[in-house]
Amino acid sequence: MNSQAADLSLDVAAVGPTGRPLREFDAPAPLDSHGPARVVAMVNQKGGVGKTTSTINLGAALADYGRKVLLVDFDPQGALSVGLGVNPHDLDTTIYNLLMNSRLDPNEVIENSNVPGLDVLPANIDLSAAEVQLVGEVAREQVLDRVLRKVEDNYDVVLIDCQPSLGLLTVNALTASHGVIIPLECEFFALRGVALLVETIEKVQDRLNPRLNIDGILATMYDSRTLHSKEVVARVVEAFGDRVFDTVINRTVKFPDASVAAESILSYAPSHTGAEAYRSLARELIARGGAP
Ligand SMILES: Nc1ncnc2c1ncn2[C@@H]1O[C@H](COP(=O)(O)OP(=O)(O)OP(=O)(O)O)[C@@H](O)[C@H]1O
Ligand SMILES: [Mg+2]
After folding, report:
1. Do 170 and 38 touch, CB atoms closer than 8 A?
2. Is the whole-model pTM more than 0.85?
3. Domain count of the fold of the chain
């Protein structure tokens, strides 16, 4: 191999799935004090794109780096709660009660998860009634914000797992947040609906929450063996440029397996590439200023 060919192969090896040079993000410095939290909503009205999986595993990775993390289950399906070993159907109070009763203390509802440093505000099917019940409230878009403000000093990061809809609950999540992460599944229709999502985010920025920032687009369920996955990521990068995280999450059965075990992938398969991907996402989010 002549030296030019050797250089070329080096270059090829250094390009990541986004087509950009692969960057390494350093492990973040430990924090000496905690809070107030930066709040980040995980949003996509398309179902099954990896919102809940990303909330659990990014949360677990941030906790692993010594951050105090609260995960808010904001989906009546309760998949986030179940995925962390909290059975929301046995609980007397959930996020629903906090939305409906401003005198209820969130600390009485928050549950410790099976991950140290990671707490959960659980949800169950009760939350499905909130969408309708909140419509008549004063400042109906700010109800979750008022709940989270009571606990923001106890955490470094709050991640909100939204349901697949752009209804009032998701608008509440956007209104309560500093940032949004949009997970996109690497498949043909990944970008369908994203324009409407961005429009909703802009409306919330304009009318309710000017600090709201799109922290990043996260490509999930990437299959490096298919040209198709690469093409989808290329199109997403074309549309969103630098806002696409360098970190891309591979498709692997380890994620559903970890959910069945009600664990994060970081504890279920700590040395698997899927666990390293979410650790990398945590480092990248911190490096980009999306988390302390
Ligand atoms: N990277 C991945 N590789 C393989 N399977 C995955 C991956 N990420 C998530 N999954 C699986 O895909 C399914 C949908 O994921 P998840 O529940 O995280 O999506 P969601 O966006 O929260 O869905 P919903 O909109 O219904 O709330 C789950 O069974 C999950 O285990
Ligand atoms: Mg979900």
Report:
1. no
2. yes
3. 1
